[in-house]
Task: inverse folding
């Protein structure tokens, strides 16, 4: 392939180039102008809150009433709900721990009651279906903290 | 009232050239429309710097970069770089004479067959009338590279379109 001769801006275009250069380019679609110039609309730099509230007040009074009612309710709840100060936070934590301990104690008592029921309902004599269970000492603590569905 | 640097004024003065250049580069009218809108949306957000003396050159450079980004993304997405070279685009004004109309259609197709770097230089030289120096600045390439790309491109067009050109001479 032959390398074409170098060109410079001072070279005079030949007839071929002149013909090409004279062919007019197509214009952009007419609707494109409006689409591009829509970007020319000034963009609000900050929200116009006064105009917003004015429009809301005049056009949507029910919205204003709703907002006022919601605000009143929130304020009332805020004022009537006792606050827990930081100084009292520890005592509330203790209270929560005490509650947990109480629940654990009650759970253990319930488990014990259940084992007692098992013992009472066990066969008295002549039945060998559950000898090991019947002869086992009463277990005060559950074998596991959480009951499972596993078949033993 | 529109000032000398308002978007309206800039659009009326340069949109035709920008659209044709974007269309010739991307070979897609939808992409050219998007790019032109993108260009003017950017101008609305961030006006042209005051120190710019050649608005047309600045805008062409800007849309060139947008077009190249678009082409690269499209190539990555479609992996069919040759597909948009055969897309029919209305790059030139229509003409009543059927031979001239056929020549313009053939020219648009032949431009699509050029490599993108040659196509951009040929377009800027022939239809924007830029010097190789100006093209080099616009495309960030040496002037000699711009000149050689132009020569390769124009010779390919000549070879490809010779039969059609002989008919209209």
Result:
């Amino acid at each position: 392939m032959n390398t074409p001769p170098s060109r410079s801006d001072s070279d005079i275009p030949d007839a071929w180039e002149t013909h090409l250069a004279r062919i007019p380019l197509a214009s952009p679609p007419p609707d494109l102008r409006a689409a591009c110039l829509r970007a020319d609309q000034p963009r609000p730099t900050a929200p116009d809150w006064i105009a917003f509230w004015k429009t809301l007040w005049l056009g949507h009074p029910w919205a204003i009433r709703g907002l006022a009612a919601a605000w009143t309710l929130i304020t009332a709840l805020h004022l009537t709900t006792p606050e827990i100060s930081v100084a009292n936070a520890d005592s509330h934590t203790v209270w929560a721990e005490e509650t947990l301990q109480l629940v654990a104690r009650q759970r253990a008592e319930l488990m014990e009651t259940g084992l007692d029921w098992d013992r009472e309902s066990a066969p008295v004599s002549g039945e060998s279906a559950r000898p090991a269970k019947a002869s086992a000492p009463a277990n005060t603590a559950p074998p596991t903290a959480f009951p499972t569905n596993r078949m033993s | 009232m529109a000032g000398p640097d308002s978007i309206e004024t800039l659009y009326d003065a340069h949109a035709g050239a920008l659209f044709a250049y974007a269309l010739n580069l991307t070979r897609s009218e939808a992409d050219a429309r998007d790019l032109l809108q993108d260009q003017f949306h950017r101008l609305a957000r961030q006006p042209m710097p005051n120190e710019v003396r050649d608005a047309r050159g600045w805008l062409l450079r800007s849309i060139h970069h947008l077009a190249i980004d678009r082409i690269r993304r499209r190539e990555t997405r479609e992996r069919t770089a040759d597909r948009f070279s055969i897309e029919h685009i209305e790059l030139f004004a229509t003409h009543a004479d059927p031979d001239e109309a056929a020549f313009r259609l053939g020219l648009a197709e032949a431009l699509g067959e050029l490599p993108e770097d040659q196509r951009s230089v040929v377009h800027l030289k022939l239809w924007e009338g830029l010097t190789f120096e100006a093209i080099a600045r616009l495309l960030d390439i040496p002037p000699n590279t711009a000149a050689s790309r132009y020569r390769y491109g124009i010779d390919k067009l000549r070879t490809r379109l010779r039969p059609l050109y002989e008919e209209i001479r």
Observations:
- Chain A is about 55% helix and 0% strand.
- Chain A touches chain B at residues 4-9, 16-17, 19-21, 23-29, 32-33, 35-37, 39-41, 43 (CB under 8 Å).
- Residues 69 and 75 of chain A are 10 Å apart (CA to CA).
